[in-house]
Amino acid sequence: MKKMNVVRVLKKIPFWILLMAFMVSALIPFLYMLATAMTPQAYTLPYPPILFPQSLYLNNFVEAWSSNHFSDYFLNSVYVSVLSTVLIILVSSLAGYGFARMNFPGKNVLFHLLMFSMMVPTLTNLVSQFLLIKNMKLMDTYLGLILTYLGTGIAANTFFLRSCFLSIPHALEESVVIDGGSHWTIWFHIVMPLSAPAVGTFAIMAFSNVWDEFLYALTIIKSPNKRTLPIALKMFQGQNLNNWSLIFAASIIALLPILFVYIIMQKQLIRGGIMDGMLKG
Amino acid sequence: MCKGIRQWCQALPFIGPALILLGVFVLYPLARNIHISFSIYDILADSITESVGFSHYQALFQNSKYLLALRNTLLYTLITVPGQMFFGLVLACLINHIKRGQTIFKVIAYLPVLTSWVIVSLIFRYIFMSGKGGLINYVLMQIGLISTPVAWLQNEWTANLVLWLFGIWKGVGWVMIIYLAALQGVSRDIYEAAQIDSANSTQIFFRITIPMVRNTTLYLLTVLTIGAFGAYIHVMMITEGAPLGTTNELMNFMYDTAFSRYDFGSAAAQSVLMGLMIFLLTLVQRKVTTETIN
Q1: Residues A131-147: pLDDT tens digits?
Q2: Which class is A75-223 in CATH?
Q3: Which residue on chain B is closest to A15 by alpha carbon?
């Protein structure tokens, strides 16, 4: 009997080795980043490389935050991401409701138009979207950037929220209709609260997509003081070419909000399915 | 008729804003993009000056730099998509075996996915530094695989290798999550039956697991391929196309054409071509997913 147990444990060894190999390869780059961020002035690569912080040295974070307007960029990103997320939810939940619950002539045609535009890869229209923003005199404005985020994602977002709303039973609304309530009442008091978990997940996806968005921010925003974090990080790397401690301290600061949001929402997000396709960016 | 108008009056506040945005930011740019791709666009005058038919398209297929970018995109796709799927499936099977405490493994494996492309690119650039202090060089020298430090990002093929490793490393966690959901839908009975017939784990993996998640595999294949086609940040941040444009991919070449050389006509033609490629892939994907659902 004892022998059997030993064999069983031995059989498990390759399994754990393989699993640990995956975990280590996922973690080491992050450890290396953290250790570098906590090393004073890594202008030259420390030799041998360090994987664990030697001391609790936090000056790089302070310096990254206060120098090069990094705190401004952080706030720019917060402003753009929060405002975009709120507007994205508002506009696409209204449209999602319209397509899920209302009848009007031409609804099918419009819905197919929506499905068609989902198949147009957003980035391929970059040139003409750039010209559009330029013609609208919205270059270098947050309004232009936010409208672009709102517009380019509208089809997929509407489609996603429509499917969420479709799964809510009609029976609940009938009482509102009998009481003479309008579609606004149903949208605000029934459909939105009932799909709160899905809308919450959706909000996080939207937020992190905007937070990390790179190409439109690079193309539309020109003034250095209006930059968002991903662009600032790129520029930061250009300016502090060899000061990796500072670059990684800045990167970690940029990563924190996303990490924070995901840890809170971990249960809902890791379920899979709901994130199909959404996270690939 | 009257009813239709009333319905529209009700629906317009709901769907109106979305329809306007769709028209202005997706459909109009799409049409304009196609128009520009057949023309010469004067960026200073902000207008089309000349109609040139298919000449932008023809020029692209004779442009060795464009063909190089096309080759790199195809290689990146052909290597990173199967790579992500293989490692993602293996990892999902491993995690699926754990009875308690799956969450911590999932979270660790998911870290690279939720970290932005810019930051992961910076990390990769740092790990593959050319000196002997670069982490990869250090490790490879310690175990004796190389005797002198490799200048990873200065050579065409090592630089491309770094980009491929990046693509795989960044995506494995996402593939794992999707596969895990599929695996958890596979009935335990099948595995138990196989164990009673004393099948070993390799047999179980190839004969049961892979066929059971076939639909998920097809779905992932198309989604990942589309993602790989449109990828650009890793090149912009890690190699910047160096050495001499040999690591450029389609998106990067297009961006340079538009915003460094201001050749909007050619850039528009490139995006039409890429749009067509992705559009065809999406059609395949939709067909596959509808078949999966039915």
Answers
A1: 999 999 999 999 999 99
A2: mainly alpha
A3: B94
